[in-house]
Design goal:
This protein is mainly alpha-helical. It is about 45% helix and about 5% strand. It has 56 helices and 15 strands. Strands 9-10-11-8-12-13-14-15 form an eight-stranded mixed sheet. A five-stranded antiparallel sheet has the order 6-5-4-3-7.
Length: about 1500
């Protein structure tokens, strides 16, 4: 930069301005003259009464003569007062440039610049080291320096010549004191910080007032290079360059760039009046003021300065040993300080907030304890417009040399991380670089030369590598020269230099090297999407990684830790050729992750942070084997790493062969991990790899590993985590029960290759830990249960014993948690139990055949009983305790509710899902309206139903009339709608007295006929029957008997005639009757048998039944006891009737039907193109499939299946259109179908107006909505949605539905054949509810957003707050005011999953809004890379888990079955029929309509 300019070295050397006339005289003369002359001047200043009087010196001649004396006086020893008086006089006189005083001679006041220039030259004499080196010289030097500071700050009349003399003066005195080797406790060591501080401050003031010319900059640069063995030089340089950088960034990148905050005292070094152009010029020159900071790593260069060379030759001319100079032993720390300063500058340009936690270098020196900075950035990225980049003041503060640099090496464990990893709290995500940051090439053009050279300091590069050709990244000749001289000093110069004793300088430059490596990793990780990096930089960076990650020859732990800590996003940035370093990273991870103690790293870094970064890297490596398959990785350095031919690095290996090593690292990491956050990340990765393997095998693309297996085993043996290469120790650092990678590889090499083997291994590992180490920790427990739930859904055939193991472990977990002592029972504990019950439900619904095993069924039902009642009926020691005898004492109501939900799942869902109505509704799609509409009886209406309630929990609606369909009308029929806690079911029942098979074979019941009579059997007797027995005639008469005369005694002739007439009439009558009798007998004889007139026939079958009474009676609900009020209870009887005539009854029944039976979730999906910032731009992207990447459309279809909102009975994303089983009007009659145009409308078809993407399983339902602009929705409020079949709709969406579908076993769309019609679709986004349709308060809801970002940096600009208005579900308006008024907090809590497609075809995940103890949800975790196959499954599973966690966290959430039960209770209380028992029985025999008419 200054090569054309001459230095001022000769000017300074030849300048005799500091010599006096008295130097020509003998020393005694000069001392006496000086003592005599200076004393009155000094005393006059020191006496307050005289201080304000005029000076003794009046003329120019007097002043100049006196100055000659003072000049000599400044060289005198410090034993008297003379030197002090000289200093007092001069510091008083130079104030003539600030504020003239009476004590200053008049000539000085008149010509202040001229005299001050001379005074400054004279003052050099004070700074020449004395033999006695007392504190008095230090005190006087500080007095002068303070005066110089005041002069430079406050003088407004200083001429350019004076400024130049002042700068040369400061350079000269610094050079006098700081250039020679430091003497312990000497004046230079004590004054160094003040000297260099004043020099830099005055220099900056000079830049503002009169900018120094290039010769001055060149001189300063050359001189500063001679002082770099002082820590203060690098410290002060770092302060100044950071303060300048802070100002530079402010006007270079504007207010939107994160400000680089520096301490106020450092910022005050930069004069406020310095303009932007001056700041820029000064910044660049100051940056290079230190020359090449990498020189600090080379004692040979630092000790080659002239002053060092003078000291090397003592009086006898013998060379002195270099190691006698302790100042060179401080070079490692100074080198680290310089690298830390450059690292801060790089972070400032990247816009990364990095408050330092510890300022000490990670080298074995005595560590200073520094206060931890509290400036931790916790704002979410979308709110972080102005993020502070902070340099902790402690970082730049120089350490006290006497304490910090003991020659005795001491190791001191530190819990904070001194390496340059962004310092975060355990759960805080790494800060993203600023979106407007400069390009990687630009930063490397500035700092790359230094950083790359520093990163290779003292590296023994491999023999086969041509050093010059491998380091072509830096093109300047100077740096090439240095590299030949400096970087290889360890192998060339250090050996040949006789003054350099290599044994005295161990490799403790690792700290600075580690800082440089970490900084370079951060630079490359900040690459923007689509940005190009020069191949020279990339190749050298990969050389650095290979060098830093090597674990074969010698492990440099600080460098390894620094690379790992700063490289988590390295494989997510689409760096060209980054995959060549994958094997080296895997070997490094095998060293770190299976090692529980990390004892070799504890001195440098926080082990938890190191493990977290390692896990992050592992997350980004896991999908590579499946993705690249049999592609072979390039060999970077063939044969250069080892002379051993079997070295695995020398042979190209396939990516697929790395899978086993990665899986074993994952398992080893899980076995040794203790940090909750790290454990959850591993659990998420486990589901990712298992699901990806399963999907790969399912589509038949499993690559054959071929001959790679043998190679693989040797590969893992040589590089396993406990091999001798991992630091020289062959002892494993973990107990035998926790075997790391090598033992795992040996035991599971055979069965972790397939998806089934992975699944079994995962189940074994997680279940074992769930019931041991993890059961006390809520966050790990929840994640482990989520992992088990995810593993249950993996479609791989495994042995039932392994599935049973999972179910048993969850049951054991619930037993343990419920049995914990009462003081430990908290809301969090109960949340863990509820989550375990939910996990149990997932396993049972995914594998219903497990309950076919008796012991499994018994175990599950015992757990349900434990949850509901608080104890098991049968314990091992006690006898059976029956339900009626037990006192219900559940752990909590939430636990009881979860157990009841599990029981409902077992009894109603297992084996019955999906129901005939499809997965969209686990309930029947029939209600009273549907029955009335589709029955063939014109007389029935909604009042034809009888309503009963069983056990206060089930409402029965009974229709006694036959439906007039295929049912046989001759049998008692009843149609029952059962509304319970788990939903609505419809049953049509008939009472059949014969089996259905016999009934089918005969048309009508015909009774047996009478047998034919047999009249010819036996004898026939003719017997005259008497009215009285014969003995009556033998009884003699008495007078009383004869008191009534006989007829002949009283008859007369007249009477005789009448008597005769009567007798003849009687005879005729007798004859007639005999004739008739004979005639009838004859006719009877002629008639056939049986007589159709007189024959007895059975009565016809009954046509009228009280089928409701029959149903209740036959099922045991109707009894005398059932109608009685229970004693000592406020509950209603077991059986009660409801009065449906009370107004509002059917509204409440409809309200009950609207209460969902499963939790429902909503996901809003957005697509963000590069550079977009407004919500309208983002919403318009989905209007055409040409605007989006094809993988986005494929991803959409992997989430769920398309449903028609108008006929969908499940959740649609908005309450106004959800859970409808009957339309608002008759669909058949309205022919005004909306015509869907055949243009390509892209993903916006799923905006919730016409269609929506939907997924449901037995336990949850999700609607995936793709919001689009309001203008593109339907224009007419009355327009109805087309009733076309889904097949025709497929043709009308060419851009999306014809994408190749992924390998997901989704349910087919069962809902297309449902008998439900169209419904209104309002055009406004805030849909209005149809008239008369109540919406229940559905409680807290979680709206998850999924954002597909083409450019990763746009995540910062995602307008979440604006898009909050676009993602309305209608639930928030129905909730109570306390939950609906949380818009401000809600925005921060909205979970957002960002998906960024990489060039490799993989996808990078960023999770936002996951805060709090409930919210680190798996399987997707921040920074994960996932494959195209598994993306849909993992996103969906993460959404389900996010929403489950939110419900666990919410105080106001009630499960669906609880809400339905409460509503049923409410209906019972409002509409109970207050009948007496006789009235109740009577009503059962009456027709419902008659009763209603009478009432």
């Amino acid at each position: 930069m200054y090569s054309e300019w001459r230095s001022l070295h000769l000017v300074i050397q030849n300048d005799q301005g500091h010599t006096s006339v008295l130097h020509s005289y003998p020393e005694s003369v000069g001392r006496e003259v000086a003592n005599a002359v200076v004393r009155p001047l000094g005393q006059a200043l020191g006496t307050p009464s005289v201080a304000g009087s005029e000076s003794l010196l009046k003329t120019d001649k007097e002043v100049k003569w006196t100055m000659e004396v003072i000049c000599y006086g400044l060289t005198l020893p410090l034993d008297g007062e003379t030197v002090k008086y000289c200093v007092d006089v001069y510091t008083d006189w130079i104030m003539a440039l600030v504020l003239p005083k009476d004590s200053i001679p008049l000539p000085v006041i008149k010509e202040p610049n001229l005299y001050v220039q001379s005074i400054l030259k004279h003052l050099q004499n004070l700074f020449v080291p004395r033999q006695e080196q007392g504190s008095s010289q230090i005190r006087l030097c500080l007095q002068v320096l303070r005066a110089i500071q005041k002069l430079a700050r406050e003088s407004s009349i200083m001429a350019r010549e004076t400024w130049e003399v002042l700068l040369l003066f400061l350079l000269q005195i610094n050079d006098i004191l700081l250039a020679p080797p430091t003497v312990q406790g000497g004046i230079a060591e004590n004054l160094a910080e003040k000297l260099i501080g004043v020099l830099f401050e005055v220099w900056l003031l000079a830049c503002t007032r009169c900018f120094p010319t290039p010769p001055y900059w060149k001189t300063a640069k050359e001189m500063v290079a001679n002082w770099r063995h002082h820590p203060a030089v690098v410290e002060q340089w770092s302060k100044v360059i950071c303060a300048l950088t802070s100002r530079l960034l402010r006007f270079t990148y504007g207010p939107s760039f994160p400000p680089f905050k520096v301490p106020d005292e450092d910022a005050s070094l930069i004069p406020p009046e310095m303009d932007n152009e001056c700041v820029a010029q000064t910044w660049f020159r100051f940056l290079h003021m230190l020359s090449n900071p990498v020189d600090l790593s080379n004692p040979a260069i630092i000790s080659s300065t002239p002053k060092f060379q003078e000291q090397f030759l003592n009086v006898s001319g013998m060379p002195q040993e270099l190691n006698q100079y302790p100042c060179l032993k401080h070079l490692p720390q100074i080198f680290f300080r310089a690298m830390r300063g450059i690292s801060c500058l790089v972070d400032a340009f990247l816009g990364i907030s990095r408050p330092r936690s510890d300022s000490a270098p990670p080298t074995p020196v005595n560590r200073l304890s520094m206060p931890q900075s509290a400036a931790v950035n916790t704002t979410p990225p979308h709110n972080r417009r102005h993020r502070a980049v902070t340099v902790n003041k402690a970082t730049m503060k120089t350490s006290t040399v006497s304490t910090a640099h003991a020659s005795k090496v001491q190791h001191q464990a530190s819990s904070t991380s001194p390496l340059s990893s962004p310092n975060q709290t355990s759960s805080e995500p790494r800060p993203l670089p600023a979106p407007r940051r400069p390009k990687v090439n630009s930063i490397l053009n500035l700092f790359g030369s230094w950083l790359f050279d520093a990163a290779f300091v003292h590296c023994k590069l491999h023999n086969g590598i041509n050093r010059d050709s491998s380091m072509t990244a830096i093109t300047t000749q100077a740096s090439m020269e240095f590299r030949r001289k400096g970087s290889q000093m360890s192998t060339d110069t250090m050996v040949s230099n006789p003054m350099f004793d290599a044994s005295e300088f161990p490799d403790n430059y690792e700290a600075g090297r580690a800082e440089a490596c970490g900084t370079l990793c951060r630079i490359f990780c900040s690459k923007k999407t689509g940005e190009e990096i020069l191949p020279a930089y990339l190749s050298r960076f990969y050389m650095l990684l290979i060098q830093g990650l090597q674990i074969n020859d010698y492990v440099c732990h600080p460098v390894l830790a620094s690379v790992i800590l700063n490289s988590p996003p390295l494989f997510c940035c689409d760096l060209k050729g980054i995959d060549v370093v994958v094997p080296y990273f895997i070997s490094a991870l095998e060293t770190i992750l299976p090692d529980r103690e990390l004892s070799k790293f504890k001195n440098y870094v926080n082990p938890t942070e190191l493990r977290r970064s390692s896990i992050n890297i592992l997350l980004s490596l896991l999908p590579l084997p499946h993705h690249f398959g049999t592609v072979k990785s390039e060999v970077v350095l063939e044969g250069k790493f080892s002379n051993d031919d079997s070295s695995s690095y020398d042979k190209p290996i396939t990516f697929l062969s790395l899978k086993l090593r990665l899986v074993n690292i994952l398992i080893g990491a899980l076995q040794t991990e203790t940090d909750p956050n790290n454990t959850q990340m591993i659990l998420g990765a486990m589901l990712n790899i298992v699901q990806d393997s399963a999907l790969l095998e399912a589509i038949g693309c499993q690559m054959e590993m071929g001959g790679g297996e043998n190679n693989l085993k040797s590969h893992s043996r040589t590089n396993s985590g406990i091999s001798s290469a991992s630091g020289g120790s062959t002892e494993p650092t973990t107990p035998d029960s926790e075997r790391p990678a090598q033992a795992l590889l040996r035991d599971y090499a055979l069965n972790t290759d397939s998806a089934a083997g992975l699944l079994i291994r995962s189940i074994h590992l997680v279940t074992q830990r769930l019931n041991s180490q993890w059961r006390q920790d809520m966050s790990i427990s929840l994640a482990a249960l989520e992992l088990l739930s995810g593993l249950a859904k993996v479609k791989v055939m495994v042995d039932s014993g392994d599935r049973k193991r999972a179910i048993s472990s969850v049951c054991s977990y619930i037993v343990y948690q419920c049995s914990r002592p009462a003081p430990l029972h908290s809301r969090d504990l109960h949340s863990m139990i509820v989550a375990a019950f939910q996990c149990l439900c997932v396993w049972l619904t995914e594998h219903p055949d497990m309950l076919d095993e008796k012991d499994c069924l018994k175990e599950v039902l015992e757990i349900v009983e434990l949850g509901i009642s608080g104890s098991k009926s049968k314990n091992s020691e006690q006898e059976v305790k029956y339900k009626g005898d037990k006192e219900p004492n559940p752990a909590s109501m939430r636990v009881k509710d979860a157990a009841e939900a599990t029981l409902t799942c077992i009894m109603q869902l297992l084996g019955a899902f999906p129901s005939p109505s499809g997965p969209a509704s686990p309930c029947s799609l029939v209600n009273e309206t549907t029955l009335i509409k589709y029955s063939r009886l014109p007389t029935i209406n909604k009042h034809s139903f009888r309503y009963f309630v069983l056990d206060n929990s089930v409402i029965l609606a009974m229709l006694e009339q036959p439906l007039g369909n295929e049912q046989n009308d001759f049998f008692p029929s009843v149609t029952v709608l059962v509304r319970g806690m788990s939903g609505r079911l419809a049953w049509a029942q008939q009472l059949c007295l014969l089996p259905r098979g016999a009934k089918a074979n005969q048309k009508l019941f015909v009774p047996e006929p009478r047998p034919v009579p047999k009249n010819d059997v036996g004898f026939k007797y003719t017997v005259k029957h008497r009215p009285f027995p014969e003995e009556v005639d033998k009884i003699p008469f008495v007078k009383a008997d004869l008191s009534i005369p006989d007829l002949h005694e009283i008859v007369t002739e007249e009477l005789e005639e009448k008597h005769e007439k009567l007798r003849s009439g009687m005879a005729q009558q007798i004859a007639y009757e005999i004739h008739l009798e004979q005639q009838s007998e004859e006719e009877l004889q002629k008639r056939s048998f049986p007589d159709p007139v007189t024959d007895c026939r059975p009565p016809p079958p009954a046509q009228e039944f009280q089928t409701a009474r029959l149903f209740l009676s036959h099922f045991g609900f109707l009894s005398l006891e059932a109608l009685k009020e229970p004693a000592n209870s406020r509950l209603p009887p077991h059986l009660i009737a409801l009065d449906s005539t009370i107004p509002g009854f059917f509204d409440d029944i409809g309200y009950l039907d609207l209460l969902p039976c499963r939790p429902f979730d909503t996901v809003f999906i957005f697509y963000m193109k590069p550079g977009q910032k407004t919500n309208q731009e983002i919403l318009k992207n989905v209007e055409s499939s040409r605007n989006v990447q094809p993988h986005f459309l494929e991803f959409l279809l992997s989430l769920g299946w398309s449903v028609d909102v108008g006929r969908h009975p499940g959740w649609t994303g908005h309450v106004s259109t959800s859970w409808s089983i009957n339309s608002c009007d008759d669909g058949e009659g309205s022919e005004q179908d909306e015509v869907i145009s055949s243009e390509d409308i892209g993903a916006s078809i799923f905006n919730g107006q016409k269609k929506v993407l939907y997924y449901a399983d037995a336990l949850t339902e999700i609607a995936f909505v793709v919001p689009s602009p309001v203008e593109s929705l339907t224009d007419s409020l009355e327009s109805n949605i087309s009733d076309q079949d889904s097949d025709s709709n497929m043709d009308l969406m060419p851009g999306i539905l014809k994408q190749p579908s992924l390998t997901l076993e989704l349910f087919p769309n069962h809902t297309d054949n449902l008998n439900s019609s169209q419904r209104l679709s309002p055009s406004s986004r805030m849909k209005k509810l149809p008239q008369g349709r109540p919406v229940p308060p559905l409680g807290p809801e979680t709206r998850v957003s999924v954002v597909w970002v083409e450019r990763y940096d746009d995540i910062e600009n995602f307008p979440l707050s604006d898009l909050m208005t676009e993602i309305s579900t209608g639930v928030e308006t129905t909730a109570n005011s306390s939950t609906s008024l949380r818009s401000t907090t809600l925005e921060k809590e909205v979970p957002v999953i960002f998906i960024h497609p990489l060039n490799t075809g993989l996808f990078r995940i960023k999770i936002q809004g996951a805060t709090g103890k409930f919210n680190m949800v798996i399987p997707l975790v921040d920074g994960m890379i996932v494959s195209r196959r598994a993306l849909g499954f993992l996103v969906r599973q993460t959404v389900i888990n996010i929403c489950r966690r939110k419900r666990l966290e919410s105080d106001s959430y009630s499960p669906p079955h609880v809400r339905r039960k409460q509503k049923i209770t409410d209906i019972v209380n409002k509409y109970r029929n207050k009948q007496l028992e006789p009235e109740f029985y009577t009503s059962l025999f009456q027709e419902v309509g008659l009763k209603n008419c009478s009432s």
